[in-house]
Amino acid sequence: MRYMLVRHKVKDFAQWKRVFDSHAAAQRKAGLTVEHVLRNMDDPSEVFLLFEMENVEKAKSFVTSPDVPGAQEASGVADRPDIFYLHE
User: Fold this and answer.
1) Which of 35, 46, 77, 88 has the most crowded Cβ, counting Cβ within 10 A?
2) What are the domain boundaries of the chain?
3) What's the pTM value of the predicted model, to 2 decimals?
4) Which fold has domain 2-87?
5) CA–CA gap between residue 29 and residue 70 (Å, rounded)
């Protein structure tokens, strides 16, 4: 299995989650399946996303697409995301 782990902070989790959920079709098109949406217990504004990914190149293309900065801004992402590509 291959995974993409994303960590970032958000200004308002509820607002971020609405925008995040609205991009489910684009995520699936990129071969990404959300496995977990997690929040840091000590800092609830810090969000971790674990996606199962079909293809690392498609996943990288998705996160570097020109649409991503606008979606991050609209959702209230408060810092630069850390992205890790992982395998078992």
Assistant:
1) 77
2) 2-87
3) 0.92
4) Alpha-Beta Plaits (3.30.70)
5) 19
